[in-house]
UniProtKB/TrEMBL annotation, chains A, B, C, D:
The lineage of its organism: Bacteria, Pseudomonadati, Pseudomonadota, Alphaproteobacteria, Sphingomonadales. The keyword Zinc does not apply. This is Argininosuccinate synthase. Belongs to the argininosuccinate synthase family. Type 1 subfamily. It is an enzyme of class 6 (ligase). It comes from Novosphingobium malaysiense.
Length: 407, 407, 407, 407
């Protein structure tokens, strides 16, 4: 064991991180500072305070922060400006929360003079990578403790036994094997493991917690509008809202209409495939709306460059490189494109789908004058198309002449 | 007018191309060969024969070909291997049909000794570009006549007047302004213009012709399976099918469940934005299924490279560069990745959505042994993750040391 | 002829643009404003004033501007931050000058109330595209006159005859066919045409004007240093210099040592291949130096992203899209990477080569502690490499197991 | 120590791998099979046999293979088809040899029934990654022993002491600290460490072993031709040669003229920067020639796609992913482009430079007819350029209208 004096633990108040809290005290004989973040996961946080106190953490070392606005404003919205999707579909709900948690862990480490941080992510997943890359990028000298990679509590039974030996209360429902593992924040809830481990088996309905089954959603569609300013959502149905308030309201709409369920087999950064279930109700609506407003306000060159850069950008976030220079470079390019992404998108929500049905903008690049089948009063000279085609074709004709063996 | 002796016309039998047929005879004083393709657009083609005969085209110069299998096998399926979507959403239903029509036009020109081809695409759209780039790529010396860029029949009234002056029958429903313009083939139907020209207005339901309104779709979901071999669909619900048969059957399923409607403002190659409505019922189901089977059979490196290349590949097809070397290079890379994309995908179809709910494969790369939360019997050593993270973090730590001004 | 009242002409004072000046007056019966830019081409500009006056251009309509500092500071240096090379080798010396000329043409058009601009680029080359795309991007309503695409003076003889008919002095050395065509500015001189048209024939030595033949360069190498701040050169051999002064001094060094000659067959945007000879003496030294300083100050992630984006960035500049949003987005990404690109590069100049032999920086990321073969005092734990390799290999092993048919 | 029965060691016969041989015998108490490859490194290999015998390796377990033709044909040439350069300059001479060595190690492991391989690369470098990723990709169950990451012989003195204790002969010149470390094969020689560790200090001339100092090279240039077939070199000065013979001959020319020296600070895959010196005499000439023949035989679309893919392709090889699916996909795309890359390139070799001065091909796409400044007999209609520019400008004009606030 290296020489650790004080460690800041990402602490949820649940069984696993309570065991870790104790294990850190016992194993490293060090002070533990707990950090519990409200990222909109929908759980009460005060119980975490009581539990930490119970394990002897002094009040000044118990941090409980509401990070919801910062989360949406500085992480979720910038990411959605890029229309980021990992492997075609995943909206990166877990990935985007990790760097913020690490940022706060490092800040608290500085405030409290801690020399280490600790987290409860396992050695098989992406989250350990995301936590640690962010932490190292923000403080190159920080030490990181990842108990799941260190201890030998490698079965549920061993963990619970250890808890009981150390007077950690074990809730009844944790005694049996939990059927799957979940992570939640304002953007999404993810589940994986156990009943989800066979990718041929349909995800049971009870795994979903953030959305009604589309079959149980209202039989009539609901229409909404979202307003955007510089690429970020600012109002719902005409009512101005802060980032977190807007996402919360969209989550409610998504829940009601069964929007944002995703069943995915994805490639983890550590090299294996895993099967996950994601619910991103508000984010799914928001993503559709953002593409909708870009359709009329972004130039083709900007739009296509964004589409080309997106897979790499999404991969960087998925792999934990939020605080890497290349992510920041891509963000600079993306943000540059959003200065005129202003306007209103109208969407239809219905039984699992969020469809753009209208968009308007004072900054629209759509020109009815140019596109019309009617008389366009000289806006566009169809004869220009001939030269355009001829010169685009020239290299293909030279190729064809070469390949057919003559002019 | 340049010196044209014989021209092959892409002829639908409709009013516009009938006017063009006559206009070519009158204006160029040349022979016209008509070519009518069955691409699955769902219209009878024999009336085209009668109309061509009526305008004096000899039987040997009337070509009516069923290209449905070639279309799906050699164009649609290769494109879907790439998961191609233009601007995030458009499945390229019109774009992918054009190169095949041009290929056949050039073949017929060779068979009949024609020196030119003609088409009915306007000077504002993408189709003229797609037709002509493909034609030039296949025959660098072919001449191309695009009447819409040449004549002065620039209003509906003018066109109809000209038709009547030249004894071309004008169907009653063509006398008024048509409310929008459509294109159809086995993959999709697109509509644009007129009632669709205001991108804020919702597409009226009567514009859709290939799908029921999701609100009118069955209240119970339907489950299906699609089998893939080397990245191509080969069976529906266990029943082997040819490419066109499979797509036809999926279209029927998509129609029933209201799947594949898309309202899009897109960027045309010629430089303007246009608003289109697309219905791609079977293609939307197929696209989801293809991603599903790739999830368990494609390695991450291959999958991510495909995602990075896709926007460029889709843009090439959209812009008409199917027969360009760079599209062929990308196809070679994509096809290389598909050799083990075999297996079965299970989908749930319900009120507008096609969702993958299961996938299995003899070539699966998903390893439950590695991913399990349970004891993995040594398949994966969690301690490896530490070194993995440490070396991935090294450059970020060196950066942080530099940027904070010291080690 | 469309209705033009006043046109701003990019005027060199040479025979061709003098003919154009007159031709515009005669053909359009409009006022002509002349604009002559000093971009460091090394020609006296005052003769252009006298010639314009001779053709009746009033003094207030004669613009002669020294744009050298703006050229290097706002165009050349930003481009070199990207390490831009078109088709692997071309340093874009002509391409990068065109947008600045167009910018000034449009400014002068606004100042003088002109409704059009004119340039002397032919209809076969890239420069017409570059001039006009930039002009349209800066003023969507500007009219553009490109005489070489309009008139019928399509041979040298015809041009000279027309000049004589219109009392335009024809210098003796212009009477015969010139052996090739050149363009020059502070960054480079290019030549093409005539003796260069056979790509198998070596470029004759007399074509080069900015560099000595390496065989005639000094027999001893010369060592120099260039200092960089935020990615831009700021000093030569320790002496602070403005951008244009620095490039001028490097040109002198490059000339002396025969550096920066390039014989290239390139692909023009208009679709054909052309063979060009380029001399970029100072730019070649500067480009090597910029890469040198980036080697120690740029993080790998940033450096590799830059390398991946570069070909597209270079293509955009080559094709004339300097003022397009996607070029600006890429520039935002590139500039973001340069904030710590500070330090000094040492180069050896010798008979055609500029080689980086040393680099140092207060912002260096190079860590001798980490890389040393000697005892590194724990800076790097070699055991971390095992986990790093194991997890990078995991997907490859899963693939190999699948492909060999078993675990 | 895990349970190893037989290990195949990549054995050079030098001191380090001799120590490893013995260390494996002593530490793992296992049989050792030695594999010594002739990759053109220019050393006699038979002494390696005697040394292995001396340490008790039976003859049937001593493999000495001449892999030079396979190396150039199946690894070097395919890589040069891509014009691969890592970080702008490095021709990947070490990187490309590693996968071949691993391939042969795995083959020999199969032939001899070995369950492990071992190599002499350290835990700080790229080569360990390259060896092991390739090995795992070819045999997912192989065990890998990397003594430098395992043992505690972490100083030169410790190694030599251990050698002497175990009766391994230590050559006199190995007793002192060697001034730098080298790797060599037919493509290049690299050196790093010691005197090279300060990136501000010029590489001393004695570090170079494969090239004369350009200052000592002949004072007159030498002209050569290289013929290409399908993107691969097949003849020098008209004389047909096998791949390895051609590269050997080019190395001799490069040596004589001082061509291919490179002083680089590069980013290692393991996260640190290192400074290396590379000599790639023949490869540098060959790379220039390959670009030269592509200039006239590759279409622009193909050429630009290759340039865009190249940085990723080079990174994959540098990082050790030769046997990864994404490298193979890129190779498929690249190879597709080379089918008509045939012809002859003429180069001038002079004091450190290899410059293309001429290229010709039966498959040339260069069209003097199109590019000429003279009368082109209608090959190209300059008026087409207007439409081409107009439509390329349309989106920029719509942007400018929007951004200036009006039409």
């Amino acid at each position: 064991m290296s020489d650790i004096k004080k460690v800041v633990l990402a602490y949820s108040g649940g069984l696993d991180t309570s065991v870790i809290l104790k294990w850190l005290q016992v194993t490293y004989n060090c002070e533990v500072v707990t950090f519990t973040a409200d990222l909109g996961q929908g759980e009460e946080l005060e119980p975490a305070r009581a539990k930490a106190q119970l394990m002897g953490v002094p009040d000044k070392h118990i941090y409980i922060d509401d990070l919801r606005e910062e989360f949406v404003r500085d992480f979720v919205f910038p990411m959605f400006r890029a229309n980021a999707r990992y492997e075609g579909d995943y909206l990166l709900g877990t990935s985007i929360a990790r760097p913020l948690i690490s940022k706060r862990l490092i800040e608290i480490a500085r405030e409290t003079g801690a020399d280490a941080i600790a987290h409860g992510a396992t050695g098989k997943g992406n989250d350990q990578v995301r936590f640690e890359l962010s932490a190292y990028a923000l403080d190159p000298n920080i030490k990181v403790i990842a108990p799941w990679r260190e201890w030998d509590l490698n079965s549920r039974t061993a963990l619970i036994e250890w808890a009981e030996q150390h007077q950690i209360p074990v809730p009844k429902d944790k005694r049996g094997e939990s059927p799957f593992s979940t992570d939640a924040n304002l953007l999404h809830t993810s589940s994986e493991g156990k009943v989800l481990e066979d990718p041929w088996e349909e995800t049971p309905d009870y795994v979903y917690s953030r959305t009604v089954n589309p079959e149980d959603a209202p039989d009539s569609p609901e229409y909404i509008t979202i307003d955007f300013t510089k690429g970020d959502g600012v109002a719902l149905n005409g009512e101005a809202m802060s980032p977190a308030t807007l996402l919360t309201a969209l989550n409610e709409l998504g829940r009601k209409h069964g929007i944002g369920r995703l069943d995915l087999v994805e490639n983890r950064f550590v090299g294996m495939k895993s099967r996950g279930m994601y619910e991103t109700p508000g984010g799914t609506i928001y993503a559709a709306a953002h593409r909708g407003i870009e359709q009329i306000t972004l130039d083709r060159g900007a739009a296509h460059l964004k589409d080309e850069l997106m897979p790499k950008y999404a991969e960087l976030i998925y792999n934990g490189f939020w605080f890497a220079p290349e992510r920041e470079m891509l963000q600079a390019a993306i943000d540059h494109s959003q200065s005129r992404v202003n306007g209103t998108v109208r969407l239809k929500l219905y039984k699992g789908s969020a469809s753009v049905v209208g968009r308007k903008s004072p900054d629209s690049l759509y020109s009815e004058r140019h596109v019309t089948f009617e008389d366009d009063a000289g806006a566009y000279d169809q004869k220009d198309a001939q030269g355009f085609i001829k010169l685009n074709a020239l290299r293909l004709r030279l190729l064809a002449q070469r390949d057919s063996g003559g002019a």
